[in-house]
Amino acid sequence: MVHANVSRREFLAAVAGSAMSLPAVIAAEGDSRKLLMIAGTPSHGPGDHEFNAGTTLLRNCLERAKIPGLQTVLQLNGWPKDESVFHGIHAIFLYCDGGGGHPFIQKNRLQLIGDLMKQGVGLMCAHFAVEVPKDRGGPEFKEWLGGYYEHEYSVNPIWVPRFEQFPDHPICRGVKPFAIRDEWYFNMRWRDGMKGVVPILSAKPSDAVRDGPYVYPRGPYRHIQEAKGQSEAVMWAVEREDGGRGVGFTGGHFHVNWADPDFRKVVLNALLWITKIDVPKDGVPSHVSEKEMKENLDPKGKR
User: Fold this and answer.
1) How far does CA 291 lie from the centroid of its chain?
2) pTM of the entire structure?
3) CATH number, domain 8-150+239-293
């Protein structure tokens, strides 16, 4: 069946140009902009890596903000069983476990996602989802996101960066200085010279943070210690040559952090930006209640 937003000619062309069983087809310009939000399966202990609850909360914030032209599609508990959900999308938000289990590197999915990227689909990966193996996903993530977490090159300490200055970028609209404890990764494996990469959230880790311990492996790593005094980007954005946009966000380990208005706003703004919807001048407005913060948590036992 041809999707309603795609002409038969476009559909057949996509099929002819792809080796996948599922054609990667995006909607025509001028239609409503569709953001697919994928949450990973349960992971870690209570309150950590709450991908389903966090993604649902962000989606609800976007829905309540009534952003003109935005359509959100929520996919919980991992990779969609029906891949037709990728039809007609303009951007993907991925919040899940990464590394060797990253959903993008399973089966033929790098090709599926790569075909979408070539058509200008935006991509934002949050927390563990920015990590892929350097020999499977690494080269692609450099292109799609501008950089990625490389095991034993990047680090993942729990620390409290202070974000006090922001670039003149739509993602930063309305974001005020804030500091928050999280497992903020840094020292990404960037494109050469960080070509095209715009740091969005940056801070200087203290010497103690660089000296470790890191969450895993505990470190310390000499190359991290030797960079003492250097500012590190823990969220970044890139505009790709294929017309798409990419964002990496390394926070999001602790679910409680979504209650912070600026932590939440910079992510909501980024979701609009990758979808190519204008970010409001004061950023995306949102409010979450204490009750909402406790909803949709994965069943992980005592909290």
Assistant:
1) 25
2) 0.90
3) 3.40.50
